[in-house]
Amino acid sequence: QVQLKESGPGLVQPSQTLSLTCTVSGFSLTSNSVHWVRQPPGKGLEWVGAIWSGGSTDYNSALKSRLSISRDTSKSQVFLKMNSLQTEDTAIYFCTLYDYWGQGTLVTVSS
Amino acid sequence: EIVLTQSPTTTAASPGEKVTITCLASSSVSNMYWYQQKSGASPKLLIYSTSSLASGVPDRFSGSGSGTSYSLTINTMEAEDAATYYCQQWSSNPLTFGSGTKLEIK
Q1: Order of strands across the sheet that contains A18-25
Q2: What is the pLDDT of residues B13-37, one digit of tens each?
Q3: Cβ B96–A94 below 8 Å, yes or no?
Q4: Would you call A98 and B33 a contact, using CB atoms and an 8 Å cutoff?
């Protein structure tokens, strides 16, 4: 069955780089796009970016200068890297196909 | 960027009552998607391509609309429908979500 699972550090210091991994199963990354969506505690959903089935990427323009999404199809993994983190980047980060979602991983930006 | 404005922000309904949530887009979009999110859980796709019911979603949920005006309707409210609902557009980059409608049970 289709599964997505996010992993990464729970705590990141301000100005540092966030690295998250989304490990998927039950489908092919070369046939499906994977998106990242984040949700600050108690707030709404924000699209972060996507890697399409062909390997191209799209990013939220507000985050584009700090963001990179890539993948390793042999390992069924999608990666998110975001640099220069600030407290407002504190959020639950989800990877998703939209009809399937990971459980999310909480990232707290704090010293 | 296309801004999606949902209304109401918060509402409550009695069991059996009909509920309608609207989503207005700042520019015309070709389709709308709707998600349900319960506290502490990941969002769940309810409606795709404006009016198609996602797999396993009860048929008391329906979606409609076109252009800049879309709506999600729950025909007969049930206690398990208490949640926050989000609309989303895929028509232009960046993909955007509405700010959410919190639906409570009376």
Answers
A1: A3-7, A18-25, A77-82, A67-72
A2: 999 999 999 999 999 999 999 999 9
A3: no
A4: yes
Residue of B33, B39, B42 to mutate when probing chain A, most A C-beta within 10 A:
B42
pLDDT at B100 over 90: yes
Strand partners, A22: A6, A78
Q: How far apart are the first and last CA of chain A?
A: 39
**CB neighbours of residue A45 within 10 Å:** 24
> Is B42 in Cβ contact with A103 (below 8 Å)?
yes
Alpha-carbon gap, residue A82 to A59, rounded angstroms: 11
**Residue-level pLDDT at B93:** 85
The reported pLDDT for the residue numbered B17 is 97
Q: How far apart are CA A82 and CA A69, in angstroms?
A: 9
In degrees to the nearest 10, what's the CA dihedral of B92, B95, B100, B101? 40
Q: Which of A47, A48, A56 is the best residue to mutate to test the B interface, defined by the most B CB atoms within 10 Å of its own CB?
A: A47
- Phi and psi torsions of A87, nearest 5°: -60, -30
3-state secondary structure of A79: strand
pLDDT beyond 90 at A17 = yes
